[in-house]
């Protein structure tokens, strides 16, 4: 006999999934799919399970409220099912997770696909997000259909109704990070969360500000900004942060939307489209401007030379310093970000190290921007931080309202030695907490630190032909190894004694041989 919805909810409503429990399930899911199924379906199932469980929790809460007001339970359940305004997300009750589990398991791909379409119909903010995926892909291979059944059962064991956004957000990030090495080979870019943390701490977004990422990816920069404000000022103040982002890949955009929601971020404004050609955010007939602009755009992106960018919207406003070469859009992204910042805006970009010193059209753009005194800091990162390249990369910080004491100067930080070995990926490094603290402190103090940081005048940069290569201005000091003279002498004596013994043995062998 089928349990009533409210009875089912009561059985589980006091349980709270732990971070460890969730991670164990995700590891099993990752092991199940290996390379045979796109990892995005793990993200999607986690998202769907969360929405289903959250809706059931809200349903039971509403029913209990109506019962306390004097209604009988049957009537209360009927009203609760009909009143769509009572829920965070309008979820089709006929496709609740437990009901999908009770349906014909052989039709699971069809039922899941129908659930996604219905969700998109009921929630305008999910159109182009959940309905972008189709579980019917699992029907193409018999083995994959079996994988889907096992994945579904794995997630069925999780109760996500009371899971905190922090725990769920960490789970989403775990999946993205786990598959990053594999997806990097296919061209997907994943920015390590430690790099995001460093950039966010330097830019220091605050409640009430608008933060914009023109190369959104899975949303890490915006989520990092939200978590920074939440940690510093509290959750209520974090909700006053306004988040905007644009992503060219529709599937990656969909992941970003789900990533925001799973982190408990409800009001982010995200868009799909080519930022360099058609920026999505406008104010009337002008480009919208923001307090903080932050991004890790694709490095050395092809196809955005002068001929292409002359067809772009707001080209005169955005590319006033010049057009980059067709084989690298780095300085197109930088110019777009500068144009997107308010007159007191702060801009932070993770960029290919070559953008700091390459010649030609890039040098012309670079020199013009440096002359305008917009550049505040350049940070050389350690090598092997990123999954898709072993190159070190750099961070550039621009400030349209540089403090008086920083005008006419640029801080160069050589953080090439600030890393620790990655605990999970053998060939990678990562920024540790102490590394991040040291770099942020150097930025905030804006002073010379021997072998690490140096304040350089614009005149000196001009003398160096506007070369911004960090090693030109500050080179890390090699630590001098202390020598224990006595110990070294004892070791040398020991070696000499061993050599003398060997000589004696050789002479003895030679005598025995008659030499």
UniProtKB/TrEMBL annotation:
Record keywords: Methyltransferase, Restriction system, S-adenosyl-L-methionine, Transferase
EC top class, as a word: transferase
Domain (DNA methylase adenine-specific) ranges: 164-481
PANTHER family listed in its UniProt record: SLR6095 PROTEIN, TYPE I RESTRICTION ENZYME MJAVIII METHYLASE SUBUNIT
Catalysed reactions, as listed in the record: a 2'-deoxyadenosine in DNA + S-adenosyl-L-methionine = an N(6)-methyl-2'-deoxyadenosine in DNA + S-adenosyl-L-homocysteine + H(+)
Membrane-spanning intervals of the chain: none
Single GO MF annotation: DNA binding
Stretches assigned to the N6 adenine-specific DNA methyltransferase N-terminal domain: 22-155
UniProt-recorded name of the protein: site-specific DNA-methyltransferase (adenine-specific)
Enzyme Commission code(s) on record: 2.1.1.72
GO process terms (BP): DNA restriction-modification system; methylation
């Amino acid at each position: 006999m089928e349990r009533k919805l409210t009875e089912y909810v009561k059985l589980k409503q006091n349980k709270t999934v732990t971070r460890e429990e969730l991670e164990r399930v995700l590891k099993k899911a990752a092991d199940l799919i290996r390379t045979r199924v796109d990892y995005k379906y793990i993200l999607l199932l986690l998202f769907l399970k969360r929405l289903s469980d959250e809706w059931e929790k809200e349903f039971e809460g509403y029913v209990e409220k109506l019962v306390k007001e004097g209604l009988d339970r049957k009537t209360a359940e009927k009203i609760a099912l009909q009143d769509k305004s009572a829920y965070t997300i309008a979820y089709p009750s006929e496709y609740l997770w437990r009901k999908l589990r009770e349906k014909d398991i052989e039709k699971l791909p069809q039922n899941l696909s129908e659930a996604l379409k219905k969700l998109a119909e009921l929630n305008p903010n999910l159109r182009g997000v959940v309905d972008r995926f189709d579980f019917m892909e699992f029907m193409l291979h018999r083995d994959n259909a079996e994988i889907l059944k096992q994945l579904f059962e794995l997630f069925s064991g999780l109760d996500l109704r009371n899971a905190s956004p922090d725990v769920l957000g960490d789970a989403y990030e775990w999946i993205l990070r786990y598959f990053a090495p594999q997806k990097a080979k296919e061209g997907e870019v994943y920015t390590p969360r430690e790099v995001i943390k460093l950039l966010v701490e330097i830019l220091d977004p605050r409640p009430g500000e608008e933060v914009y990422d023109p190369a959104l990816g899975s949303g890490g920069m915006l989520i990092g900004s939200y978590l920074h404000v939440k940690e510093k000022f509290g959750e209520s103040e974090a909700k006053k942060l306004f988040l905007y982002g644009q992503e060219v890949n529709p599937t990656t955009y969909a992941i970003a939307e789900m990533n925001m929601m799973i982190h408990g971020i409800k009001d982010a404004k995200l868009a799909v489209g080519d930022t360099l050609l058609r920026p999505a955010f406008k104010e009337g007939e002008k480009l919208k401007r923001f307090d903080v602009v932050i991004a890790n755009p694709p490095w050395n992106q092809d196809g955005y030379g002068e001929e292409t960018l002359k067809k772009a919207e707001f080209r005169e406003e955005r590319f006033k310093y010049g057009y980059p070469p067709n084989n690298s859009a780095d300085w197109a992204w930088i110019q777009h970000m500068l144009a997107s910042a308010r007159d007191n805006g702060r801009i932070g970009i993770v960029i290919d190290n070559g953008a700091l010193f390459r010649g030609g059209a890039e040098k012309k753009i670079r020199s013009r921007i440096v002359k305008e005194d917009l550049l505040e800091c350049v940070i050389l990162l350690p090598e092997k931080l990123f999954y898709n390249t072993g190159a070190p990369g750099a961070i550039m910080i621009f400030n349209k309202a540089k403090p008086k004491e920083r005008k006419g100067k640029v801080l160069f930080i050589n953080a090439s030695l600030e890393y620790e070995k990655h605990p999970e990926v053998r060939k990678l490094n990562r920024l540790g907490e102490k590394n991040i603290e040291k770099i942020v402190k150097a930025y905030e103090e804006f002073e010379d630190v021997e072998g690490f940081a140096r304040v350089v005048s614009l005149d000196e940069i001009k003398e160096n032909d506007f070369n911004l290569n960090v090693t030109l201005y500050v080179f890390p000091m090699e630590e001098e190894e202390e020598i224990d003279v006595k110990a070294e002498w004892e070791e040398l004596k020991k070696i000499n004694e061993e050599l003398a013994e060997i000589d004696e043995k050789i002479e003895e062998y030679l005598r025995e041989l008659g030499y």
